[in-house]
Amino acid sequence: MQPPKQIHAGYSSQKLLASDFIKHRRPFVSIWLLLAIVISYPFVAYPADGGAAPPPAPLLQAGDLIWPKKPGTIIPYNSRPGEADKRDALRWRKEKEAYLNQVRSNPNPSPQERERYAALQKMTYEEFANYYLGGRIPGQPATFGLGDIAVGHVGIIEIIDGKPFVVEAMWGPGVQRLSYADWLQKRPGELFWVGRLKGVPPEKRAAVAQRAAEQIGKPYNFWDFDLEDANGFYCSKLAWLSILQGAGFPPDDDPDPNRVLWYSPKQLIKSKHVELIANPGPYGSR
Fold it and tell me: How far apart are CA 94 and CA 105, in angstroms?
């Protein structure tokens, strides 16, 4: 009996007849099928709407931070789930003018208020979006540490009886607590980034969640620039104060709570004190 013919990877030096290829096509078919499965596998986990499976509940710990976003959309600054539109820009302009009128009526504005007034008076909504959603710091060059992630909302994970909840400041209801399951249900098809404070023991991370929960029921206030003023919150202000009080340090290493402009969710996700434990990729490409 003759030994079977060998088919070499570099078969350009060996002439094969068509009948030889057909006879031995099974190995080729199997290899290409295996390659197709391997190449396509990373895409299997993503639904057709562009979303991805949310982080599993057992992954979450008290004091974790979670940033949601629907693929292919801009997150409005007021943190409502869904897509920003022209109404969002119009609302921002009206709120900005109301705030400027408030400063004008103050006979003794603080140095920060004067600086803020000058910045806001000429700021367009597009410039605001670049700053708040994109994390661009006025007067500083753009940084690209996390690609083009544009973040508009963040919540704080709280664990109650072993189950995760999300504490967040939302336009409308103010600071609220939702079970993680209910929170996810309100955000179908969204992607989720989860961050954990680096080098902070579990008991202090739990204290971060506890401090956030103490603010439940407080109103939403996007135009309160004192990060330690507990009379009203926007989402990343709630996270900043909760981390300061619970972990003992400000996440941006700036202890001065009186800011000229907002502390944004993008600034928080870029903090050197935060490591991402769930990262589905840069927002701009999803």
Answer: 17
In terms of Cα–Cα distance, which of 234, 227, 228, 240 is closest to 268? 240
Residues paired with 66 in a beta bridge: 155, 194
CA distance 196 to 25: 51
User: In the CATH scheme, what architecture does the domain 57-285 have?
Assistant: Alpha-Beta Complex (3.90)
Q: One-letter amino acid identity for 141?
A: P
Q: Which of 168, 251, 155, 247 is nearest to 207 (CA)?
A: 247
φ/ψ of 196, rounded to 5, equals -130, 140
Amino acid at 3: P
- pLDDT tens digit at each of 286 positions of the chain: 444 444 333 323 333 343 443 344 444 444 444 334 333 333 223 333 445 789 999 999 999 999 998 776 655 565 555 445 567 788 889 999 999 999 999 999 999 999 999 999 999 988 888 777 764 444 443 333 334 455 679 999 999 999 999 999 998 899 999 999 999 999 988 899 999 999 999 999 999 999 999 999 999 999 999 999 999 999 999 999 999 999 999 999 999 999 999 999 989 999 999 999 999 886 444 4
